[in-house]
């Protein structure tokens, strides 16, 4: 059952989801047959019930939450967890098989790239179409038109058919319409990942502006983005709620923990002159191959290489990547050891890394050996070491710098 009501802005709860469930069939032909049977059952006044039939599965099962004005709910989970299905139900694109959704006020949604756009119409015409769907009059859209076009940065292309827009242009237009119309409920899926960094930052600024008067539902695989704007979180797994609450940090931890497996290292380049035999953190505990350290720790990175045919020690360097595989730091020992070495022998190195100020999260270390810094690479391996930094705070930025606040009269 789907019930949308327009109410005064003074009402607090804007989105109420009660026991929501949605089934799909893995086989198209079987699914069509079930659909016909369900139509006949509906005419007769009977329902199929909550039992799964052959080849059916729950894409969403027993999901409940309330969202008030000024709150931002982060929906996270692996691909196939049910996030997009839930958003489509909330936006009225598909009907649930179980439960009830009540949304009060206007809904602005950015769910799928280009969704809601008529490809043969211009960007300007699509703005008016989308505005009309949201319940705005032509006069109200006229007042917002210039702001939408300016935000989308499409002044030169606004009268071009949307079918000729790039993916980034469609995202800019879609977000501009969804946000600038100042909806009561704003639904945003992972499509923001398509935009460039400058536009993404502008989107977050716009979300900050509308959030006090809006309820926002935000889906992303980027945990820094989730921690940036969300004050509550739902972690979905196979359509069911695995974690729900205001402790966004805990939800993100559980999401990261689902990735914590002892992944094999990945040699991306070698000229066969040397080989990394082992890489460990000497003073950190390992849990299933994942080293656990606390923020502010000093760690000792020990690596053993087998020299095949080099005549002198290589230049060693390391790069740290976060879970989104963004390179965030370089470890370059200032005093490199340069000496002659024998062929077919093993050599151990110990690197002290002082005062780890990386923010809470999971990181991988890439090992590189070369003739000099960034010249004539001999060997490079990703995920030589995986470690997790523990801290009470979950923050947007990759670094949490140690500091002390003092009161000065």
From TrEMBL:
Residues 34-263 form the ABC transporter domain. SMART domains: AAA. PROSITE patterns: ABC_TRANSPORTER_1, ABC_TRANSPORTER_2. One of its GO terms (molecular function) is ATP binding. One of its GO terms (cellular component) is membrane. Keywords: ATP-binding, Nucleotide-binding, Transport. Belongs to the ABC transporter superfamily. This is Lipopolysaccharide transport system ATP-binding protein.
């Amino acid at each position: 059952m789907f019930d949308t009501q327009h109410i005064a802005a003074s009402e607090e709860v804007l989105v109420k989801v009660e026991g929501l469930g949605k089934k799909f069939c893995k086989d198209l032909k079987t699914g069509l047959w079930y659909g016909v049977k369900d139509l006949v059952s509906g005419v007769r006044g009977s329902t199929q019930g909550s039992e799964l039939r052959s080849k059916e599965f729950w894409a969403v099962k027993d999901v409940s939450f309330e969202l008030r004005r000024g709150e931002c709910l982060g929906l996270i989970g692996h691909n196939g967890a049910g996030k997009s299905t839930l958003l489509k139900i909330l936006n009225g694109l598909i009907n649930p098989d179980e439960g009830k959704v009540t949304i009060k006020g206007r809904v602005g949604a950015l769910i799928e790239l280009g969704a809601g756009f008529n490809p043969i119409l211009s960007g300007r015409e699509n703005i008016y179409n989308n505005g009309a769907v949201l319940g705005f009059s032509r006069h109200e859209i006229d007042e917002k038109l210039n702001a939408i076009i300016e935000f989308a940065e499409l002044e030169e292309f606004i009268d071009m058919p949307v079918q000729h827009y790039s993916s980034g242009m469609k995202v800019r237009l879609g977000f501009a319409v969804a946000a600038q119309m100042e909806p009561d409920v704003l639904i945003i899926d992972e499509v923001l990942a398509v935009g460039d960094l400058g536009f993404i930052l502008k989107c977050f600024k716009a979300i900050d502006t509308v959030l006090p008067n809006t309820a926002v539902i935000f889906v992303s695989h980027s945990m820094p983005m989730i921690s940036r704007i969300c004050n509550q979180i739902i972690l979905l797994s196979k359509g069911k709620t695995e974690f729900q609450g205001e402790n966004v940090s805990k939800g993100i931890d559980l999401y990261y923990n689902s990735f914590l497996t002892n992944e094999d290292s990945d040699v991306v380049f070698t000229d066969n002159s040397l080989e990394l035999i082992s890489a460990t953190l000497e003073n950190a505990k390992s849990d299933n191959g994942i080293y656990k350290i606390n923020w502010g720790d000093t760690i000792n990175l020990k690596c053993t290489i087998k020299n095949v045919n080099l005549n002198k020690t290589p230049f060693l360097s390391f790069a740290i990547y976060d879970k989104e595989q963004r390179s965030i730091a370089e470890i370059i020992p200032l005093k490199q050891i340069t000496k002659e070495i024998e062929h077919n022998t093993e050599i151990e190195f110990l690197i002290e890394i002082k005062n780890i100020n990386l923010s809470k999260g999971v990181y991988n270390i890439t090992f590189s050996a070369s003739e000099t810094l960034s010249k004539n690479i001999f060997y490079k391996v990703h995920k030589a070491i995986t470690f997790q930094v523990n801290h009470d705070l979950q923050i947007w930025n990759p670094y949490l710098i140690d500091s002390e606040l003092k009161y000065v009269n």
